[in-house]
UniProtKB/TrEMBL annotation:
Superkingdom of the source species: Bacteria
Residue ranges of every copy of the DUF5753 domain listed in the record: 107-279
Organism: Nocardiopsis endophytica
Lineage, opening ranks: Bacteria, Bacillati, Actinomycetota, Actinomycetes, Streptosporangiales
Listed name of the protein: Helix-turn-helix transcriptional regulator
InterPro entries per record: Cro/C1-type_HTH, DUF5753, Lambda_DNA-bd_dom_sf
């Protein structure tokens, strides 16, 4: 399986931050030392160190990373080679880079590509990874609010995302979908309900529906996605607003959403009951 540049980027950034923390140096002190060692008065600054540690760079220089490792006194050749490999992988481009004009940075797709487990709660829509082409097109058209120039590229990218389920080791995907999302599916989009019934038989996919009749619940404030990865990468929580994406990584934040998902899952119908509710909704269209 090809490494996800997105995940590698986050790993390099996290490791550089951890190395600086262990060294006891401030970002300003590291920048000053980098200037001294490199002999360059320009090119190194406190803001650059901060960008490197948060992954806010387009392409990372291997030489820059090795210079930082010198400052942090990382001398083991094996460890330095690991960093070099990570930087090379982080500088690659995933297929989603072709769709930057409709996907932005594509971080979510890059993380999905290597996730071992994905759990989501969806309040008003079917999860992107389970959408049919017709439903994805209807969603993209509605979101475009009349500006339909990029709708087909959005749909194409959405369909390509589903390739994660075709991998030799696909992620374990579990979703709780609010019944409200199903109520927004019109007769011409009935294939979406049929698709949910089909994929619910997939050994790696679990679908539960949270009935509107159950009243208030632990995730009333909106949908979220929890992604977990093989070691050593930590879990990430993804939140989406109208015009921005937010990624949470602190242990406390992730733990809070994991707990919230557990509560929502406990409030939802069982997998079999959910399948029956979807069938009932499909028959009613």
């Amino acid at each position: 399986m090809a490494a996800s540049p997105t995940l590698r980027r986050r790993r390099v950034a996290r490791l550089l931050f951890q190395q600086r923390e262990r060294s006891g140096l401030t970002a300003k002190a590291v920048a000053a030392e980098a200037k001294r060692i490199s002999g360059k008065a320009r090119g190194w600054s406190e803001s650059k160190i901060n960008r490197l540690e948060t992954g806010e760079w387009k392409r990372l220089s291997i030489d820059d990373v090795l210079l930082l490792l010198d400052i942090y006194e990382v001398t083991d050749e094996g460890e330095r080679e690991d960093y070099t490999r990570l930087v090379r992988e982080a500088n690659q481009k995933g297929w989603w880079a072709t769709y930057e004009n409709v996907l932005g940075g594509g971080q979510l797709i890059g993380l999905e590509a290597e996730a071992s487990s994905i759990r989501s709660y969806q309040s008003m829509t079917v999860p992107g990874l389970l959408q049919t082409e017709s439903y994805a097109r209807a969603m993209a058209t509605a979101s475009a609010m009349g500006e339909t120039g990029e709708v087909e590229r959005r749909v194409e990218a959405r369909m390509l995302r589903k390739a994660v389920f075709s991998k030799a080791q696909p992620p374990a995907f579990w979703t709780v979908i609010d019944e409200a999302a199903l109520l927004h599916i019109t007769p011409e989009l009935s294939d979406q309900l049929e698709h949910l019934l089909d994929v619910s038989r997939h050994p790696h996919i679990g679908i539960q529906v949270l009935p509107v009749a159950h009243g208030p619940h632990a995730a009333m404030t909106g949908h979220f996605v929890i992604m977990e990865f093989p070691m050593p990468d930590p879990p990430v929580v993804y939140l989406e607003a109208v015009s921005e994406e937010l990624y949470l990584e602190s242990e406390n934040q992730v733990r809070e959403y994991q707990r919230r998902f557990d509560y929502v899952q406990a409030s939802a119908l069982s997998v079999d009951e959910s399948r029956e509710l979807i069938r009932t909704r499909l028959s009613a269209l």
